[in-house]
Amino acid sequence: MVAEVIAVLTEQLDHAGNPSSLHGSGRAARRVVEESRESIARALHARPSDVVFTSGGTEADNLAVHGIFAARRDADPRRTRILTTAIEHHAVLDTVEWLAGHAGAKVEYVAVDAAGRLDLDDLRRRLDAEPDDVALVSCMWANNEVGTVQPIAEIVAAAHAHGIPVHSDAVQAVGQVPVDFDAVGLDAMTVTAHKLGGLVGVGALVVRREIDVSPLLHGGGQERQIRSGTLATASIAAFAAAIDLAVGRQPDQARRLEELRSDLVRRAREAIPELVVNGDPEPGPEHRLPGLAHVGFPGCEGDSLLMLLDAQGVECSTGSACTAGVPQASHVLLAMGQDEAAARGSLRFSLGHSSTAADVDALIDALPGAYERARAAGLTGVGGSDA
Amino acid sequence: MRVIAAMSGGVDSAVAAARAVDAGHDVTGIHLALSRNPQSYRTGARGCCSIEDAGDARRAADVLGIPFYVWDLSERFHADVVEDFLAEYAAGRTPNPCVRCNERIKFEAVLDRAVALGFDAVVTGHYARLESGADGAVELHRAVDEGKDQSYVLGVLTQEQLRHSLFPLGDTPKERVRAEASRRGLAVADKPDSHDICFIADGDTAGFLHRELGSRPGAVVDTTGEPVGSHDGAYAFTVGQRRGLRLGHPAPDGKPRYVLDIEPVSGTVTVGPREALEVRRLEAIRPNWCIGGAPTEGVEGTAQLRAHGAVHPATATLLGDRLLVDLHEPATGVAPGQSVVVYDGTRVVGSATIASSAA
What pLDDT digit, counting tens, does each position of B256-286 carry? Predict the structure, then answer.
């Protein structure tokens, strides 16, 4: 966490007021929350009244998808379809699956191409078929694994032609690429503080006042009756400070990360010519996030590579793990048409504000040796590569 | 050395890993996921396949401050251990899946991968001792705690595998291992031991076999071939078994009857008196020599015929690719499919799979 955000946070830790209280310290807290709300709205190009604070991105995704689905279907029982993609974060995927299993939702996964980008023609076909049955469309702004940026404005235009609301999970995008809520015309958008340099445990659903959202959490009626619960004043203040900095620094940051990333990819390719870079190869905010490199290593188990790199101080990640900790093939790569073996042999390298050229050097030093060993281990057939 | 600690989530492997750290090794903890769907195996606190166990192993690794990963061996485990277990029972034999798991999973699949990844050895919580012999060979010996000794299930290891193994608990009684775990702040100190087969969730082996192999009715006959009962599947029987035979009428002499033989093709189970179970000689296949190579002459020593079973003075002789074991005193209840492990004093010489036996 950067010093400016820590300063804001520690300043607030001295104040104990509940922003819903009417007394003096409550009013002081209320002012901090509302100024933070205005600041966050400004950073995202939304109205302050659009910002609904949550416990983070997962809750905001659940609130958007579940809450808008329930409200829209209550208004018209025909609206049971949810259009989304198979590359969404699990906070969206598992929510729509739950709605399918428990609330009669019919979930459709709009096709994505080999770069991980939503197919607009497929979306329009599905919308045009039975527009009156669609409750909402949800598509992430940028994919968290391969970094591909989605055509949000076009998605919104296609859905709004039929009066259908659109939600986007922009957790990965804010601070990395320009995010303008009003300009793209979204109805709801998920953001979270810790991806921007704030604290874990606070985020927001930016949702237009005109959109009806059924609450998930019932209680004191805070946040437009959409999200009850005492507001976390200090965390919210730090969130506002972090988003201000992140959005302000975004152009410089993107340029710097793009340079580091292209250096990383070029040198990794020189060392291992057979590696595969996943996602959109073109740079730029319409194409992909600047600081992500998602790389496939043929013949390797990603978790072997991860372990070897980890031992040398290089931290990267595979897709995800199940409850018991077993690495799973990335659902994003599978949806992009890759086979199980390729998906299991891929790693994500994330560059952020603290990454330096020395970090890239360390990775490039460690990578060839780790790759050779991981390939040798892959040949032992352990870890499911013989599946 | 750079070593992999195989951590099941139990107290033994946690203390073994801790001792490897104390010994100055660079230790990485590994938990083996043996089921793709943990709920299908045992889900209580005592298994080796559950989410709780993976969590317990992770907690122990965190306390020790070592890196920890989960390795997915579910497909290998199913193909090499579970399917072998079913095929052996279907063939009228009585397999030991822990022996098979050591042979194919812990000291083959895991060790191969570890070595390929640049590790020098695998550490486990088995109760057995390794010593350096005068000739430079690594010797496998029984544990000091005879009640916990697990050298029997390690008899399938080769000299090469033993060279890449560490068993830090072989010199310590179990109770002291628990006390040490508690002293080290490992939450698994009081976790119960696992005894049953980890992939049979409810401990009901006969029920598991019946579900997996289906109903295969057959006859129970006496030593003259006279039918004395029937059954739903010969796989529910083990040579030497007395209980649960469900025979309609008592033997003419009124003495209890035991399973003497299982004929898998017809499903015929032969029962008879205890005396008929006595075995003085047995023949075993696929011998493995922990000592490095086959001994040039017969081994005068002892033989153990099942896990935690009695120790029989015996002479073992290699005949072609078969091992003949002459027992100096008769043994009973010798089941084909089990391992015979040959010892010279406390040292494991080798092992083989029992194929047949004779009085």
Answer: 899 999 998 899 999 999 999 999 999 999 9
Measured between CA atoms, how close is B71 to chain A, in angstroms? 6
Assigned CATH for A250-378 = 3.90.1150.10
**Pick from A42, A83, A73: nearest CA to A206:** A42
| CB-nearest partner of A326 from B33, B58, B76 | B33
The pLDDT value recorded for residue A384 is 41
Range of the domain at B235: 205-276
Chain B positions in Cβ-Cβ contact with residue A377 (cut-off 8 Å): 113, 116-117
Residues of A in contact with B70 (CB under 8 A): 321, 324-327
ipTM of the complex: 0.80
Confirm or reject contact between B1 and chain A (CB < 8 A).
no
The confidence score (pLDDT) of residue A353 equals 87
Flag if A386 and B73 touch (Cβ within 8 Å): no
CATH topology of domain A3-245: Aspartate Aminotransferase; domain 2 (3.40.640)
By annotation, the residues of A acting in catalysis are 322
Highest mean pLDDT among A47-51, A322-326, B211-215, B276-280: A47-51
Which residues make Cβ contacts (< 8 Å) with residue A173, sequence separation at least 6?
A141, A142, A149, A179, A289
Q: CB of B118 within 8 Å of any CB in chain A?
A: yes
Tell me, what CATH number does B235's domain have? 2.30.30.280
B291, two tokens: 């000592």
Residue B269: what are its φ and ψ, rounded to 5°?
-110, 125
Least Cα distance to B112 among A368, A370, A379 occurs for A379
Give pLDDT, residue A323: 65
Residue B28 with chain A: CB contacts under 8 Å: 307, 311
Dist. CA B285–CA B339, nearest whole Å: 9
What average pLDDT does the segment B67-86 reach? 92
* pTM reported for the whole predicted model: 0.85
